[in-house]
C-alpha cells in the first residue's frame, strides 16, 4: 500500500528510538535483582501512516513486549517513543488518555481478551464510558453501529463471550479496538488462534477497515504466510533484537540475514510441488536471560564465523528501506 | 533451600515481633486484672497494689513491652505470674504432648483423608463417593468436644479399649500409642475431612490431565497411572491444605487437650488467658506462631521434593 | 524430669485389685480440674493448691469436721493470757520431712514470713491482727494481737497458716518442693499434669495407709467422671449437679455428700441508686422462687434465707426463714406500682459453675414478675474485675468459707472497708459494719455468735442479698477405698483412707 | 435462501436463547443431586428462621422447671425439653434465626476484610508484601485466643462473636482472593482494559472481582458452616451467645453437661448444625462445579 | 502397495452430554497401510482428535464408540477388554499429543517416563531400559541424552519435549503412530525439525502414521494420503497430490483458498463464510450446505454418499460429483487402495 520511494516521503506516525525493555530476575535471600531478561534490546524503527508493519520471530523473541511497550503497558527500560511528534514514553496515565484513543490493540486469544462475565454490549459501551460523555442511548447506538461494522448484529448485544465462536469473538475484539477511531492498531497474533477459514475472514475484515479508516497496523505474527499476505513491511526479531527489516517483497525475495533465510525456508508450503531447499537450524532458542555474546544468532547460525561470537553486528541499511544486522548480510546458505 | 530458610527466619523474627506486640497490647486493653487473679477473691486493694508492683504491672505500657522484648531477645521469656515458673520451662514440659497430639492427628487426618479422597475420586459419582463425601462433611461438622466425649464413652468407658485421658506414657510404647488414638481421631477428623475433599477434587482435576492420557497411551497399567502418574501431582494442592491444617491443629488442640486431660500448650495458653498470666500467654502464642511458620516452611520444602518445577534458589 | 512415670493407661488395673499389691496399684489418684498454683501455703491462695498443702503441711489448729470445734493439730494446747495475748504450746518431737525439728522457731518464722509485706502473701490478711510473735521456749510461742481477735483460732486453722520448714524455705522454693510435717511427703510435680505424694512413714500420728497419692489434672469434669468409671482415678470432689445422676448410676463408687459452708447468693449493686430502694430489693426477693431453684440442684443445695450458712459459725436456725418469702403476686404488684419493669436490668454472671443456672432461672422468674432482665455472662477474670468495679445491676456471688467462721464471710464480702476490692456487692451499712467489727474483736464465742446472728439478720431484713442456696460438699471415691474425711468447707483429707 | 445463507455471518456455536449466567449456574447446580438436597435444606432453614414464631410450638425461653429434661417424643414436646424445661424444638427453630444470622454476618464481615486485602495484595505488587505479612500474622495467631481477646475487649454479644469469627476467615479468604487475582491479572482481558486506558479501580472492581467470584462464593458457603460450628466452640469456652438466647452452638455446649442423662440436648442441635454445615458445603461444592466453565460439556 | 495396517469402518463416536447424546464422529471409514502417512485435516472441532482417540481407545469417560469397527492388522480392537487394549498401546499403537507442555508428567524425570514403556512391555531391567532410553533420545536428535534422562520436563524447551514425546511413543517400535497436531505449539524452525524427524523415523521403522493437523502446509510436507473432515464427517479423501491439485469438495477448496500462499505475492484469500456448526445442531442433508455457495436443494435434504473419482483412491462426498462419478458403497473404499 505504501510505496517506499525516496521521493514521496510518507508521513511518520510512530518512531521508536533505542527502545529497551528488561525484566529483572529476582532471587537470593533478599530477592535482589540478579539479572535481566532482555525482552526487547535496542529497537529503532519508524512506522508510516496507513501501512502494516509485520513483526515476526520465534516465540519469546520479544514481539509482544515490543507491542505492549509501544502502548505504554510496560515501562521502558530505555529509549524513546514518538507518536505524531510527541514523546509519549514518560506520560502519566491521565496525560496519556488522549493517545489511548489513537492507539489500540487486538489480542491473540479472542476469548481471553474479553471479560467472560461481561455482556459484550456492555464491554463495548464501557469504552465510551471511559473516554466520552455519551448518554446511555448514544452509547448503545454507537455500539450497535460498531457491531454492524465488524459484521455482527444488534441481537448479539446482550450475549456473553462464551456464546460466540472464535471468529466472532475476534470481531468483538476488533470492534472494541476501533471504537474510538484510532489511527494505529497493534495486532498481537490477532489471527493465530483462529482456524484457517476464520482467519481468512478476519484478515479480510482488518484489510477492509484499514482502507476505510486509514489505519496503521503493527501486525505481530509468527505466520510468515499471513504476514506476506497482509503486510507492507516486515520486521524480523530474534532474541529481543531486530535482525532484518524490509518491504515484504524485498525481504521475501532476497532475505539478507541467515535467520530470515532459515525462517522462510522452514515454512511448510501448502502445495506438493514447491521444492525449496530446506535450511534446518540446529538447537533451540537460547535463554533470553543469558543471551549469547556477539551476534545473538551465532549459536544456531550455519555461516557463523569467529567475529560473530565477539562483535555485535551493526544495524545497516543494505538496500533502500532494507535493513539487516549481520556481519555477512546477503550471504546465501 | 538455605536461602528460603534464612528468608523465613528473618520473616519469623518480624512476625514474632508483630504478634508479641498484638498479644501484649490486647492483653493490656482486655479487662481482667492479673493481680486479682494472683491475689484471689479476698485480696484487699493494698494486697493487689503490692502484687502489681511485684509483677511490674504499674509501669507504662511501652516500658513493659520494651522490657519483654529485650528479655525475650536474650532468651528470657519471663516467669508465670501465677506459679512463678519460668515460661520456657512450663512450655517445654507441655510442648512434647502437644506435638505428639498434633502429629498423631495429622497422621490420622492424612491417612483417612487421602484414602477417602482417593476412593471418592476414583469411584467418582458412585455411592462410594457420595458416602465418603457425606462422611467427610459430617467430619467437618462435628464439634470436637462432642466427638471426644462420645469416643470416650464408647471406646474408653464402655469397651475399655483405650484409656480415657492422659498422655504420660512414652509414645513408642503400646500404652503411649493407645493413649494417643482417641485424641488423635477427635482432633484429626475435621482435617481428615478437609484433606479428603481437597484430595478428591485435586484427583479429579489431575486425572483429566494430558499427561495421564499420555501414560495410558503408553499402555501403563491403571494402578500405576493412579499411583505414579496421578497421585504425586494431585498431592501438590493437598499438601497446602495439610500444611494449613497442621497450623490449625497446633492452635486447635485446646479443646481436645481439655477433653482428654492432656497436658499441652493449648491448655496452658487458654488457662493462662483465663488467669491473665501474660508472660505465659505470650510464650505459648509465640511458640504456636513459630510452629506455624516452621510447618509452612516444611510444606514449602516438601513442595520442592514433590514438584520439581518449584525451586527457591 | 517429668516425674510420675505412672501410666494412666491402665484403666482396669487399679480396680481389678486381685492382681496383687504391686506398688503401682497402691496409687490413689485424685482428679482435679486445675493444677496447683504452687505448694507453699504462704504464697498460694487457691483451693487446688490447698488440697496438696493440706496433706503436706499441718496447722497449729484444726477444726473438727464433726463437732465444728477447733482442736489442736500441731499445737498441744493454748491459753488466752489476756484479750490480746495467746500462748500456744506445741507438740513435741515432730519432724519436718527434711528431718529438721518442728518447734516454736518454725512457727515464728512461718508467721513472720506470711505477714511480711515483702512476701506479698495473698492471705497476709489472716494474720493482720497479729502484733508480735515471741518464742518462749523450744515448744512455746506467744502471740500478741493488736486488738482482741475473736476469729483467731479460725485463722490459725486456715490452710494458709500451715507451718513450713524454715530450713527448707531458705534452701529451696517451697512452691515447687514443699516441706511440711504432714502425713504425705512431696515426690514430684509435673506442672499442668500431676503432683505426686508418698506416705510419710514417720508421721507423728501414724503413717497413712495410702502409700502413694497423685493429684492428676483433668480439666473436664465429665472426663474425670469417665476416668473414675474406668478406674483410672479413684477420687474426685466438687461433683457437678448435672452429672449427679450419672454418678449415682455408677456401681464402682461411693458418693459422699455433706452440708457445707459455701453460700450462693444474688446481690444487688448497692452503689446503684435503683438498688437503694428497699421496695425494689423486696420485689426482686419476692420474685425469686428459691425452692424451685433448689430442686434443680439434684440434692446438692440446702435452702435457707440465712447468709451465714448452717455449717458456719454464727448461724441460728431462726434466720432460715427470715427473708422475704417467695410471692410472685406481691412482686408483680410492687413492679407494677413502681414501674420497675420499665428499665432493663443488667444481670451480670460469671460463666462457670452454677452461676449460669442461677442466672437463667432467676432471669426467667424475674421476667415472670414483670422485670426486664438481660443476662450478661463473662469469663471469670473479666467478671471479677467488672464486679469489683461495680459495673452491674445485680449479680451472683458465692463464698466458700474455709474456716467456717461467720466473720470470715461477712467482713471481706460486705464490710464497707472492702468496697472496691472484695466487697463486690458494694454493700455499705454502718450498723452492719459495726456488728462485723464487733464480731471480730470479741473473744467470747457465745457472744460472737449472737453478734454474728444479729449482723446476719440485718442483712436479711435489708434484702441486701437474696440467698439462693447453701452448698453441699461432695466427693466420689472408688468403692475399694474408705475412710475419707470430708470437711463442710469442701476440703478433705486422705490421711485415714484405706484400701481394701 | 442461498443468498441469505451466504451473507449470514458465523453463527454462535451454541444457539441458545440468551440466558443469564446465574440462571445457567442454578440449573447446573440443581442437576447435582447433593447440591439440590443442600439447597432444599438451606431453604427450609431460612423458612424456619423467617417463620420461627409460627413454626415454634412454644416460647423458646419460657421455662418450666417441673417438666425439665423430658426426652424426645414426649407429649407436647416432640424434641423434648432442656434442663430448664424449655421446648427444644422451639429453641431449634428460633435458633435457626440466630445461627444463620451469626453465620451470615461473620462470613460477610470476613469476606469484606478478606476480599479487600486479597484484592489489594494481588493487584499491587508493592502492597503485597505487607498485606501478606499481616495475613500471616492473622494466620499464625491462634484463632481461639483472638476470639477471646475480641470478646474480652468488646464484651460478650452475638455481634462480637460474629466479628471474632469473621476475623478467622480473613486470612484464608485473603489468600484465596489474592491467588485468583494474581491469575486473573495475567489474563488478556485485563491487559485489554489497560490498553483501553481503564483506571486501576475500574479494573479491580469491574473486571477482576466478578471473575474471582467463583472461589469467593465457594469459600463463603463453606465458611458458613464452619462459622456456625465456631459459635459452638466459643460457647463451649463460654464465649458465645448470651443465655437464654436459643443459639445452636450455645445449646450444644450447654447440653454437653447432660450428655449422659439427656443426650438429645446435644444431639438435636448437633444435627441441626451438621445439616447446615452439610448443606452449605455441598452447595459450595456444587457451585464450584457449576461455575467451572470447563464443566460445560459434561 | 503395502499391506493394510489399520482399518476403520463406519466409525461413530458419541458423547453423553447434559443436553443428550451427540455424535462427534459420524460414520467415518478409512485405512492406513504400513509405511504410509495419512493426514486428517479439518477445522477445529471437526472430530479429528476424537477419531484418533477412538482408534487408540482413550476416549474421554463420557464418550464411546457407538458403531463401526477399528481393525489393527485385520483384528478388531475397538471392543477389546481394557487390559488387552492396554497391552496394545505403546507396543502396537502409540500416540503423541499436541501440547508437549502438558503431555509430559511434570513430576517425573524424562528418564522415568521414557523407561516406563520399555520396562512395561519388554520386561527388561532398569539399567537396560536406561541404555535403550539414551539410545532413543539420540535417535530423536537430543544432545547430551545421558544428562537429559535425569532432567524434568520443565527443564527442556518445547521442541525438546516434543522429541521426548516422540522417543517415548517410539520406544517399543509400534506399528502405528498417531500424532495429534504434534507441531502446532512449536515455532516454524523447530516444527521443521520435528516433521523431518517423523518422516525419517517412519522410513526407518516402516510405521504407519496417522497425523492430525489443520495446517495445510504440514499436510503437504508429510502426507501420503489426506482425509478431510467436516463436522464429524469425512468429506474427501485421496492421495496428497490429488487433494492439493485437484480438490473436489467445496470445503477442501475453501480450506486451500483460505491459506495465504507465501510463494505467490498476488494470492487473494477467499474465506469460507460462516463457521463450524455445533454438535447439537440438527442439519439436514449435507452438513456443509449452510456454508456452501454451490448448495442445491438436494444438498439441503439428502446427505451425499461417497463418490469415487477418476483418480484411484480419491473419494468425495458431494452431490456436485454425482453425475461424473459413480457411487461407491461404504467400506469398499479400503479394498481399492
Ligand atoms: N512480565 C514479564 N516478566 C518477566 N519476563 C517476561 C515478562 N513478559 C515477558 N517476559 C519475557 O520476555 C521475553 C519476551 O516475551 P514476549 O512475550 O514479548 O515474546 P513473544 O515474542 O511475544 O513470544 P510469543 O510468540 O510466545 O508470544 C520472553 O523471554 C519472556 O519470558
Ligand atoms: N468429552 C467430550 N464431551 C462432549 N463433547 C466432546 C468431548 N470431547 C470433544 N467433544 C466434542 O467433539 C467434537 C470433536 O472434537 P475434537 O477434539 O475431535 O476436535 P478436533 O478436530 O480435534 O479439534 P481441534 O483442532 O480443536 O483439536 C467437538 O465439537 C468437541 O466439542
Ligand atoms: Mg506474544
Ligand atoms: Mg484436536
TrEMBL record, chain A:
Q: Which SMART domains match?
A: AAA
Q: List the GO molecular function terms.
A: ATP binding; ATP hydrolysis activity
InterPro entries to which the protein is assigned, alphabetical: AAA+_ATPase, ABC_transp_ATP-bind, ABC_transporter-like_ATP-bd, ABC_transporter-like_CS, Oligopep_ABC_C, P-loop_NTPase
Q: Which Gene3D superfamilies match?
A: P-loop containing nucleotide triphosphate hydrolases (3.40.50.300)
Keywords attached to this Swiss-Prot or TrEMBL record, sorted alphabetically, are: ATP-binding, Nucleotide-binding, Transport
CDD domains, sorted: ABC_NikE_OppD_transporters
Q: Which GO terms describe its biological process?
A: peptide transport; transmembrane transport
Q: Pfam families per the record? A: ABC_tran, oligo_HPY
Question: Start and end of every ABC transporter domain?
Answer: 14-264
PANTHER family given in the database record: ABC TRANSPORTER, ATP-BINDING PROTEIN, TRANSPORT ATP-BINDING PROTEIN
Q: Which family does it belong to?
A: Belongs to the ABC transporter superfamily.
What protein name does the entry list? ATP-binding cassette domain-containing protein
Q: Which organism is it from?
A: Paenisporosarcina antarctica
Automatic annotation (TrEMBL), chain B:
MF annotations from Gene Ontology: nickel cation transmembrane transporter activity
Where would you find the membrane-spanning parts of this chain?
A: 12-30, 101-122, 134-160, 180-199, 234-255, 285-306
GO CC annotation, single: plasma membrane
Keywords tagged on the record: Cell membrane, Ion transport, Membrane, Nickel, Nickel transport, Transmembrane, Transmembrane helix, Transport
Give the primary localization class: membrane
Where does the protein end up?
Answer: Cell membrane
Lipid bilayer topology: Multi-pass membrane protein
Q: Where does the record place the ABC transmembrane type-1 domain? A: 95-303
Q: What family, per the record?
A: Belongs to the binding-protein-dependent transport system permease family. OppBC subfamily.
Q: How does it assemble?
A: The complex is composed of two ATP-binding proteins (NikD and NikE), two transmembrane proteins (NikB and NikC) and a solute-binding protein (NikA).
Q: Which named protein is this? A: Nickel import system permease protein NikB
Organism lineage: Bacteria, Bacillati, Bacillota, Bacilli, Bacillales
UniProtKB/TrEMBL annotation, chain D:
Name it: ABC transporter permease
Q: Which UniProt keywords apply?
A: Cell membrane, Membrane, Transmembrane, Transmembrane helix, Transport
Transmembrane ranges? Answer: 34-56, 100-124, 144-168, 212-238, 258-283
Q: Where is each ABC transmembrane type-1 domain found?
A: 96-284
Q: Which residues form a coiled coil?
A: none
What membrane topology does the UniProt entry give?
Answer: Multi-pass membrane protein
Q: What is its main location?
A: membrane
The reply to whether Coiled coil figures as a keyword in the UniProt entry is no
One Pfam family of this chain: BPD_transp_1
Gene3D superfamilies attached to this UniProt entry: MetI-like
- Where in the cell? Cell membrane
Name a GO CC annotation attached to this entry. Answer: plasma membrane
Automatic annotation (TrEMBL), chain E:
Which GO MF terms are attached to this record? ATP binding; ATP hydrolysis activity
The ABC transporter domain covers 6-256
Q: Which residues are in coiled coils?
A: none
Q: Which residues form the signal peptide?
A: none
Q: Which CDD domains is this protein grouped with?
A: ABC_NikE_OppD_transporters (cd03257)
What Gene3D superfamilies does the record point to?
P-loop containing nucleotide triphosphate hydrolases (3.40.50.300)
What Pfam families would the database entry show?
Answer: ABC_tran, oligo_HPY
A GO cellular component annotation in the UniProt record:
plasma membrane
Domain of life, per UniProt, equals: Bacteria
Q: What is this protein called?
A: ABC transporter ATP-binding protein
From what organism does this protein derive?
Paenisporosarcina antarctica
Amino acid at each position: 500500500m505504501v510505496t517506499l520511494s525516496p521521493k514521496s516521503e510518507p508521513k511518520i506516525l510512530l518512531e521508536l528510538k533505542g527502545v529497551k525493555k528488561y525484566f529483572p530476575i529476582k532471587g537470593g535471600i533478599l530477592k535482589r535483582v540478579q539479572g535481566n531478561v532482555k525482552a526487547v534490546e535496542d529497537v529503532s524503527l519508524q512506522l508510516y501512516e496507513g501501512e502494516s508493519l509485520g513483526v515476526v520471530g520465534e516465540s519469546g523473541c520479544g514481539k509482544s513486549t515490543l507491542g505492549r511497550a509501544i502502548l505504554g503497558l510496560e515501562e521502558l527500560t530505555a529509549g524513546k517513543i514518538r507518536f505524531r511528534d510527541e514523546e509519549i514514553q514518560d506520560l502519566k496515565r491521565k496525560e496519556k488518555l488522549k493517545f489511548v484513543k489513537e492507539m489500540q490493540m487486538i489480542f491473540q486469544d479472542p476469548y481471553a481478551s474479553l471479560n467472560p462475565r461481561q455482556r459484550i454490549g456492555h464491554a463495548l459501551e464501557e469504552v465510551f464510558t471511559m473516554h466520552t460523555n455519551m448518554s446511555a442511548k448514544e452509547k448503545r447506538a454507537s455500539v450497535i453501529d460498531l457491531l454492524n461494522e465488524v459484521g455482527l448484529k444488534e441481537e448479539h448485544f446482550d450475549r456473553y463471550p462464551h456464546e460466540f465462536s472464535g471468529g466472532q469473538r475476534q470481531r468483538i475484539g476488533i470492534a472494541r479496538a476501533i471504537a474510538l477511531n484510532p489511527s494505529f492498531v497493534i495486532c498481537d497474533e490477532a489471527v493465530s488462534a483462529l482456524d484457517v477459514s476464520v482467519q481468512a475472514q478476519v484478515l479480510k475484515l482488518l484489510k477492509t477497515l484499514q482502507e476505510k479508516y486509514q489505519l496503521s497496523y503493527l501486525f505481530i505474527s509468527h505466520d510468515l504466510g499471513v504476514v506476506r499476505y497482509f503486510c507492507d513491511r516486515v520486521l524480523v526479531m530474534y532474541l529481543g533484537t531486530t535482525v532484518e527489516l524490509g518491504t515484504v517483497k524485498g525481504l521475501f525475495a532476497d532475505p539478507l540475514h541467515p535467520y530470515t533465510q532459515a525462517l522462510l525456508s522452514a515454512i511448510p508450503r501448502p502445495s506438493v510441488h514447491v521444492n525449496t531447499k530446506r535450511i534446518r537450524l540446529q538447537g533451540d532458542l537460547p535463554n533470553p536471560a543469558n543471551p549469547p555474546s556477539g551476534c545473538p544468532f551465532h549459536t544456531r547460525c550455519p555461516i557463523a564465523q569467529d567475529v560473530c561470537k565477539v562483535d555485535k553486528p551493526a544495524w545497516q541499511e543494505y538496500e533502500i528501506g532494507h535493513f539487516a544486522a549481520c556481519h555477512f548480510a546477503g550471504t546465501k546458505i | 533451600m538455605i536461602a528460603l530458610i534464612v528468608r523465613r527466619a528473618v520473616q519469623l523474627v518480624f512476625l514474632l515481633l508483630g504478634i508479641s506486640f498484638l498479644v501484649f497490647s490486647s492483653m493490656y486493653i482486655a479487662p481482667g486484672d492479673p493481680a486479682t487473679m494472683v491475689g484471689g477473691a479476698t485480696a484487699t486493694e493494698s494486697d493487689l497494689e503490692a502484687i502489681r508492683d511485684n509483677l511490674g504491672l504499674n509501669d507504662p505500657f511501652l516500658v513493659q513491652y520494651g522490657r519483654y522484648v529485650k528479655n525475650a531477645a536474650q532468651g528470657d521469656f519471663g516467669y508465670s505470674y501465677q506459679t512463678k515458673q519460668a515460661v520456657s520451662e512450663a512450655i517445654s514440659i507441655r510442648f512434647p504432648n502437644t506435638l505428639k497430639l498434633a502429629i498423631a492427628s495429622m497422621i490420622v487426618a492424612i491417612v483417612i483423608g487421602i484414602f477417602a479422597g482417593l476412593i471418592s475420586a476414583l469411584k467418582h459419582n458412585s455411592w462410594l463417593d457420595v458416602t465418603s463425601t457425606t462422611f467427610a462433611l459430617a467430619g467437618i461438622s462435628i464439634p470436637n468436644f462432642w466427638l471426644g466425649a462420645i469416643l470416650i464413652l464408647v471406646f474408653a468407658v464402655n469397651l475399655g479399649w483405650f484409656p480415657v485421658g492422659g498422655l504420660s506414657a512414652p509414645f513408642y510404647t503400646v500404652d503411649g500409642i493407645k493413649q494417643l488414638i482417641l485424641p488423635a481421631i477427635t482432633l484429626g477428623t475435621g482435617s481428615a475431612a478437609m484433606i479428603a475433599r481437597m484430595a478428591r477434587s485435586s484427583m479429579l482435576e489431575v486425572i483429566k490431565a494430558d499427561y495421564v492420557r499420555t501414560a495410558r497411551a503408553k499402555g501403563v497399567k491403571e494402578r500405576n497411572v493412579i499411583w505414579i502418574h496421578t497421585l504425586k501431582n494431585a498431592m501438590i494442592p493437598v499438601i497446602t491444605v495439610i500444611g494449613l491444617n497442621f497450623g490449625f491443629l497446633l492452635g486447635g488442640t485446646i479443646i481436645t487437650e481439655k477433653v482428654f486431660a492432656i497436658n499441652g500448650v493449648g491448655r496452658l495458653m487458654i488457662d493462662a488467658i483465663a488467669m491473665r498470666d501474660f508472660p505465659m500467654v505470650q510464650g505459648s502464642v509465640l511458640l504456636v506462631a513459630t510452629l506455624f511458620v516452621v510447618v509452612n516452611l516444611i510444606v514449602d520444602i516438601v513442595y520442592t521434593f514433590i514438584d520439581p518445577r518449584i525451586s527457591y534458589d | 524430669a517429668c516425674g510420675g512415670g505412672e501410666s494412666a493407661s491402665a484403666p482396669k488395673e487399679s480396680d481389678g485389685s486381685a492382681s496383687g499389691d504391686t506398688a503401682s496399684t497402691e496409687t490413689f489418684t485424685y482428679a482435679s480440674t486445675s493444677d496447683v498454683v504452687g505448694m507453699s501455703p504462704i504464697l498460694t491462695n487457691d483451693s487446688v493448691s490447698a488440697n496438696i498443702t493440706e496433706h503436706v503441711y499441718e496447722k497449729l489448729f484444726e477444726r473438727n469436721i464433726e463437732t465444728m470445734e477447733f482442736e489442736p493439730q500441731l499445737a498441744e494446747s493454748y491459753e488466752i493470757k489476756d484479750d490480746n495475748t495467746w500462748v500456744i504450746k506445741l507438740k513435741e518431737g515432730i519432724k519436718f520431712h527434711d528431718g529438721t525439728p518442728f518447734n516454736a522457731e518454725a512457727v515464728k518464722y512461718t508467721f513472720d514470713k506470711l505477714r511480711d509485706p515483702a512476701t506479698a502473701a495473698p492471705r497476709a490478711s489472716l494474720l493482720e491482727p497479729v502484733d508480735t510473735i515471741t518464742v518462749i521456749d523450744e515448744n512455746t510461742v506467744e502471740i500478741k494481737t493488736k486488738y482482741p481477735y475473736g476469729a483467731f483460732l479460725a485463722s490459725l486453722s486456715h490452710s494458709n497458716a500451715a507451718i513450713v520448714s524454715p530450713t527448707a524455705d531458705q534452701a529451696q522454693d517451697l512452691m515447687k518442693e514443699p516441706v511440711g510435717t504432714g502425713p504425705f511427703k512431696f515426690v514430684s510435680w509435673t506442672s499442668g499434669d500431676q503432683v505426686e505424694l508418698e506416705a510419710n512413714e514417720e508421721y507423728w500420728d501414724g503413717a497413712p495407709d495410702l502409700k502413694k497419692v497423685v493429684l492428676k489434672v483433668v480439666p473436664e469434669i465429665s472426663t474425670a467422671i469417665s476416668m473414675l468409671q474406668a478406674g483410672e482415678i479413684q477420687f474426685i470432689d466438687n461433683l457437678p449437679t448435672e452429672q449427679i445422676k450419672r454418678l449415682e448410676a455408677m456401681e464402682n463408687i461411693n458418693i459422699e455428700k455433706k452440708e457445707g459452708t459455701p453460700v450462693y447468693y444474688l446481690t444487688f449493686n448497692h452503689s446503684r441508686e435503683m438498688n437503694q430502694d428497699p421496695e425494689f430489693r423486696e420485689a426482686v426477693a419476692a420474685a425469686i422462687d428459691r425452692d424451685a431453684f433448689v430442686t434443680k440442684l439434684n440434692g446438692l443445695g440446702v435452702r435457707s434465707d440465712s447468709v451465714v450458712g448452717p455449717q458456719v459459725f454464727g448461724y441460728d436456725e431462726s434466720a432460715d426463714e427470715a427473708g422475704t418469702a417467695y410471692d410472685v403476686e406481691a412482686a408483680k404488684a410492687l413492679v407494677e406500682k413502681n414501674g420497675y419493669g420499665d428499665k432493663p436490668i443488667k444481670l451480670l454472671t460469671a460463666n462457670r459453675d452454677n452461676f449460669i443456672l442461677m442466672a437463667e432461672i432467676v432471669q426467667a422468674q424475674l421476667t415472670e414478675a414483670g422485670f426486664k432482665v438481660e443476662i450478661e455472662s463473662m469469663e471469670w477474670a473479666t467478671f471479677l474485675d467488672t464486679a469489683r468495679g461495680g459495673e452491674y445491676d445485680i449479680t451472683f456471688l458465692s463464698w466458700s468459707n474455709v474456716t467456717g467462721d461467720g466473720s470470715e464471710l461477712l467482713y471481706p464480702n460486705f464490710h464497707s472497708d472492702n468496697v472496691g476490692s472484695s466487697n463486690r456487692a458494694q454493700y455499705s451499712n454502718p450498723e452492719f459494719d459495726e456488728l462485723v467489727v464487733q464480731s471480730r474483736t470479741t473473744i467470747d464465742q457465745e457472744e460472737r455468735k449472737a453478734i454474728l446472728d444479729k449482723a446476719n439478720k440485718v442483712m436479711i431484713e435489708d434484702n441486701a442479698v437474696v440467698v439462693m442456696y447453701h452448698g453441699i460438699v461432695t466427693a466420689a471415691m472408688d468403692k475399694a477405698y474408705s475412710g475419707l474425711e470430708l470437711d463442710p468447707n469442701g476440703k478433705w483429707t486422705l490421711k485415714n483412707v484405706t484400701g481394701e | 435462501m442461498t443468498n441469505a445463507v451466504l451473507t449470514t455471518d458465523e453463527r454462535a456455536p451454541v444457539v441458545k436463547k440468551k440466558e443469564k449466567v446465574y440462571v445457567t449456574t442454578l440449573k447446573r447446580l440443581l442437576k447435582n443431586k447433593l447440591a439440590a438436597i443442600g439447597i432444599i435444606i438451606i431453604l427450609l432453614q431460612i423458612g424456619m428462621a423467617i417463620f420461627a414464631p409460627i413454626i415454634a410450638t412454644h416460647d423458646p425461653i419460657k421455662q418450666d422447671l417441673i417438666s425439665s429434661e423430658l426426652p424426645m417424643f414426649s407429649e407436647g414436646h416432640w424434641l423434648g425439653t432442656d434442663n430448664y424445661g424449655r421446648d427444644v424444638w422451639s429453641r431449634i427453630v428460633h435458633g435457626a434465626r440466630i445461627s444463620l444470622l451469626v453465620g451470615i454476618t461473620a462470613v460477610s464481615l470476613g469476606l469484606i476484610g478478606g476480599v479487600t486485602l486479597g484484592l489489594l495484595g494481588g493487584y499491587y505488587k508493592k502492597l503485597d508484601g505487607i498485606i501478606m505479612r499481616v495475613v500471616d500474622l492473622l494466620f499464625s495467631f491462634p484463632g481461639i485466643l483472638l476470639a477471646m481477646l475480641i470478646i474480652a475487649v468488646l464484651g460478650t454479644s452475638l455481634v462480637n462473636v460474629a466479628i471474632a469469627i469473621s476475623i478467622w476467615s480473613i486470612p484464608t479468604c485473603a489468600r484465596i482472593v489474592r491467588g485468583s487475582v494474581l491469575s486473573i491479572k495475567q489474563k488478556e482481558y485485563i491487559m485489554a482494559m489497560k490498553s483501553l486506558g481503564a483506571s486501576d479501580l475500574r479494573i479491580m472492581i469491574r473486571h477482576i472481582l466478578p471473575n474471582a467470584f467463583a472461589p469467593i462464593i465457594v469459600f463463603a458457603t463453606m465458611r458458613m458452616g464452619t462459622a456456625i460450628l465456631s459459635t459452638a466452640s466459643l460457647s463451649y469456652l463460654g464465649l458465645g451467645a448470651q443465655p437464654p438466647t436459643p443459639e445452636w452452638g450455645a445449646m450444644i455446649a450447654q447440653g454437653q453437661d447432660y450428655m449422659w442423662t439427656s443426650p438429645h440436648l446435644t444431639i438435636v442441635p448437633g444435627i441441626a448444625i451438621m445439616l447446615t454445615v452439610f448443606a452449605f458445603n455441598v452447595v459450595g461444592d456444587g457451585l464450584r462445579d457449576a461455575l467451572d466453565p470447563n464443566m460445560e460439556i459434561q | 502397495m503395502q499391506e493394510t495396517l489399520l482399518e476403520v469402518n463406519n466409525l461413530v463416536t458419541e458423547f453423553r452430554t447434559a443436553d443428550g447424546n451427540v455424535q462427534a464422529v459420524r460414520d467415518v471409514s478409512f485405512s492406513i497401510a504400513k509405511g504410509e502417512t495419512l493426514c486428517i485435516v479439518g477445522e477445529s472441532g471437526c472430530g479429528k482428535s476424537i477419531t484418533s482417540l477412538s482408534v487408540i481407545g482413550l476416549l474421554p469417560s463420557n464418550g464411546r464408540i457407538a458403531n463401526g469397527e477399528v481393525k489393527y492388522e485385520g483384528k478388531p480392537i475397538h471392543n477389546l477388554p481394557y487390559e488387552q487394549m492396554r497391552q496394545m498401546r505403546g507396543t502396537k499403537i502409540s500416540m503423541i499429543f499436541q501440547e508437549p507442555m502438558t503431555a509430559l508428567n511434570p513430576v517425573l524425570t524424562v528418564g522415568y517416563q521414557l523407561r516406563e514403556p520399555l520396562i512395561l512391555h519388554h520386561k527388561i531391567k532398569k539399567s537396560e531400559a536406561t541404555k535403550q532410553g539414551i539410545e532413543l533420545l539420540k535417535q530423536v536428535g537430543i544432545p547430551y541424552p545421558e544428562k537429559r534422562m535425569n532432567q524434568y520436563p520443565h527443564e527442556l524447551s518445547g521442541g525438546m519435549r516434543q522429541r521426548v514425546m516422540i522417543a517415548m511413543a517410539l520406544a517399543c517400535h509400534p506399528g502405528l503412530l498417531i500424532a495429534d497436531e504434534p507441531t502446532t505449539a512449536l515455532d516454524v524452525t523447530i516444527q521443521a525439525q520435528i516433521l523431518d524427524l517423523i518422516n525419517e523415523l517412519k522410513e526407518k521403522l516402516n510405521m504407519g502414521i496417522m497425523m492430525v493437523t489443520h495446517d495445510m502446509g504440514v499436510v503437504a510436507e508429510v502426507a501420503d494420503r489426506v482425509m478431510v473432515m467436516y463436522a464429524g464427517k469425512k468429506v474427501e479423501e485421496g492421495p496428497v497430490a490429488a487433494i492439493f491439485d485437484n480438490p473436489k469438495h467445496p470445503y477442501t477448496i475453501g480450506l486451500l483458498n483460505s491459506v495465504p500462499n507465501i510463494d505467490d505475492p498476488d494470492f487473494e484469500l477467499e474465506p469460507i463464510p460462516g463457521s463450524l456448526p455445533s454438535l447439537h445442531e440438527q442439519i439436514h442433508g449435507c452438513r456443509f450446505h449452510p456454508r456452501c455457495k454451490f448448495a442445491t436443494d438436494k444438498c439441503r435434504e439428502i446427505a451425499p454418499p461417497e463418490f469415487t473419482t477418476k483418480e484411484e483412491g480419491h473419494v468425495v462426498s458431494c452431490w456436485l460429483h454425482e453425475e461424473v462419478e459413480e457411487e461407491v458403497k461404504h467400506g469398499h473404499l479400503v479394498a481399492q487402495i
